[in-house]
């Protein structure tokens, strides 16, 4: 009588792979769901975020200011990828996997916490006293998906501020913000950081002439 062949041991690699997939996929999905659930506030609209302005004097400086964020991002990604590759060759994926998954989960937890804090910061803004702003420069912003109907990006100075600021005046014409003129800034401060506001011109731009009827 022949003895039956022993049954093969169950393959646990599939379960391990599914656990890794779950740890990799669930944190981003949770953050995306949180982003959908949070009410949030669109940056466009009546109040716009106040940002520090950088005035440049030549095209080379303007090119560097525009390209600097991309270059810094590429350098950071390259450095992280280099460190990861060196550690992978030295330790191997089996030893690195728990630490990588832990860092991955912590990264998305931090992003979720940032979303909640940012939403609370915008929702609990406090009004600030109106200020007179000296207009330095104004440029037209054409309508698009981000800015809606378009408007004017205004560069201005505030008393006591070390650097110029810029603000998008939605739906307002460029003629309302002549360089050297004064506008009124109606601002609100976030609960913990940041300022939002809108500009009101003290000028009365001339109406667009209409063709005379014949």
UniProtKB/TrEMBL annotation:
UniProt KW keywords: Membrane, Transmembrane, Transmembrane helix
Positions of transmembrane segments: 20-38, 70-88, 100-117
The protein, known as: Uncharacterized protein
Species for this entry: Ottowia testudinis
């Amino acid at each position: 009588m022949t003895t039956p062949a022993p049954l093969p041991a169950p393959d646990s690699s599939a379960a391990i792979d599914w656990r890794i997939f779950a740890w990799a996929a669930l944190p981003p999905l949770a953050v995306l769901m949180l982003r959908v659930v949070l009410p949030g506030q669109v940056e466009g609209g009546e109040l716009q975020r106040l940002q520090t302005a950088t005035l440049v004097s030549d095209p080379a400086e303007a090119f560097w200011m525009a390209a600097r964020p991309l270059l810094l991002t590429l350098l950071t990604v390259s450095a992280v990828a280099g460190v990861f590759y060196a550690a992978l060759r030295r330790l191997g994926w089996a030893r690195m996997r728990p630490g990588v998954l832990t860092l991955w989960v912590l990264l998305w937890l931090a992003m979720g916490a940032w979303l909640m804090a940012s939403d609370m910061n915008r929702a609990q803004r406090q009004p600030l006293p109106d200020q007179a702003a000296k207009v330095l420069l104004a440029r037209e912003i054409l309508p698009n998906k981000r800015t809606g109907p378009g408007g004017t990006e205004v560069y201005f100075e505030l008393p006591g501020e070390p650097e110029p600021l810029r603000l998008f005046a939605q739906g307002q014409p460029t003629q309302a913000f002549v360089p050297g003129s004064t506008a009124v800034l109606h601002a609100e401060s976030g609960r913990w950081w940041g300022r939002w506001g809108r500009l009101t011109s003290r000028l009365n731009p001339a109406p667009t002439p209409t063709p005379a009827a014949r």
